[in-house]
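Continued from yesterday's entry.
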Amino acid sequence: MDPITHTFVGASLAASGLGRKGPLATAALIVGANAPDIDGCAYFAGPYAAFAFRRGWTHGVLAVLLLPFLVAGLLAAWDRWVRRRRQPGAEPAHGGTLLALAALGVATHPLLDWLNSYGVRWLMPFDGRWFYGDALFIVDPWIWLMLGAALYLKYSQRAASIAAWGAFWLFGSMLMVSVPSVPLPARLLWLAGVITVLTLRACKVAAPRYELGVERMARFAFGCLCVYIGVAVAANVVARSAVRAQLTAQGVRSIRSVMVAPLPADPLAGQVVIATDTDYYFGRWNWLPRPTFVPSAQHVARLRYGPLIEAAAKAPDVRRFLTWSRFPYAQVESNASGQYLVHFRDARYRGAVALRGPTVRLCATPSGLEHCG
């Protein structure tokens, strides 16, 4: 999921009462919830290096065990060398508490990342297999609204925080309005939710009752999140089973896998990719007015290794891309000069410019096909 979601999850755990467990408890939850994304540094080595490395080592079982010690150690050092030097009489942070809260924060991260179709490698470094939940879009505004409502009511006491939250609600609203694929009912529901949250904040009651109410709201919001995730996962299982059953009834054989991926801000529809032995087929899943799979006439051939593909796949960027790719395929172009352009793609992200694979130029030489820049 996106960094805002991970931050909100850690902050919501803190706002629900865990933040009162001691000094730096809130920091342990928030930093822990974001710690696995330290692998974002891989982008400095190029986008395809990030494809091959991200959501692997720092998201796997070994990292989930080790990262809490790193987070707790850094916070304990901050507590000793910075915080308590600035505030000599302050209560020291308890190492065991920091470790437990950091472990909880870290554990939420790979679970949330599993929920989308990008995938996560839970078993790294022992096994590089990808796992996909296909339940939530990678940026889910409904999680922002659920958790953001409780956090805004709690952390909007100062002018700077009010301004920051105002910028967030404006950014979220602009995103919902500007993305063409977001349906109109979703846009209206988002705007109604934001207006409701702003109204609740403006009508807050006396401070003691308000703080108690906000803590309860944080717990309620986190409970709603758990229910939302559970329903989304169960719905995806049902949708995939229904798509497979419909295709089988129509005589389609050799189905290897079915993906029903969520769409932006629309939990009532999904993008379908069906992998057979030879091709990828596409379609759309709709829950309303009744559960329906609408197949598309489009399809592309699966990646087949012949001389062209084998030669192109030797490029480092291609190897990295194929490490990440779930439904890989290639498009080949040729010209009169004997050159070939091999475009590598993933069927999950047809049309997504930011997630296109590399393009390799091959030249025919007396010794065979060679990369020619």
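--- second protein ---
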Amino acid sequence: MNTLAGVKIKSMSPQFLVKDIERSVEFYNKNFGFAVDFRVEDFYVGLVRDGYTLHLKSGNPSQEERKNKRHNEDLDVIFTVSDVDALYQELIAESVEVTQPLCERPYGKEFYIADPDVYILAFLSTH
């Protein structure tokens, strides 16, 4: 009997290794409205918005890996949002680093940004 058939995935949380946890918390709060859900001392933070979570762990992300991901546009996470145009304009106004400008794709509209540790975040509105 396959026990996995009865198991339901209830959520998933990407975890980013970040140099400065407070800087990252501020970035995700200010630009995307993520709130602190929990903290574990000064090295781990869970963020939440609209029932979705993102975890941040203090450490030293590999600069070489981050550089390669940016160069190759390898995404770390994709957010599907209700109004990609409005979000894009808001982030431009906040001088967030855009790595892929807003563009049309066969599946929708999207753009990419880099966070303070150069995690590449995609924002997408589907047709």
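The CA atoms of residues 109 and 125 lie 5 Å apart. The radius of gyration is 16 Å. Will compare against the first tomorrow.
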